Known about the structure:
The chain is built from four helices and seven strands. The protein has helices at 62-68, 70-75, 83-86, 99-109, and strands spanning 12-19, 22-27, 41-49, 52-59, 88-95, 117-121, 127-131.
Amino acid sequence: MTNTFNPLDFGFDKLDLQHGSLRFYEYCSGDFCDGKVNPHRINVYLTQDGDFVTVWDGLFDTAFVSQAFHDLIGKVGLGDVDFFTTYHTPLFRGHIETQDEAKIILKALRFDRLRPSIIRIDEDNRICCDSL
């Protein structure tokens, strides 16, 4: 058994996209995690490029949701909503080389206590955030 850090060993599922050597993962916090990116889901995500790792809680891509909700936000007079500030919480950015390091670092983040949610527009054209 290798001691190299692998997010799959810590409850993450690999997402079905990659960019060069950059790998994307989502914390498997429910049956809804299926390896596909749901741009409206708020969850814990991890990127890995070699031993450099970034972990955050929030939307996978805040720019996508911001664009998708742009017309509605303008229509209801909310002005500029900053989805990045509201729905992106950085948890870790640094190097994790080994399983032993990951056990300490990921445990300290306590992300297993975070609740996944989904952001949507309801029938009254309001932005809602529902727990999954």
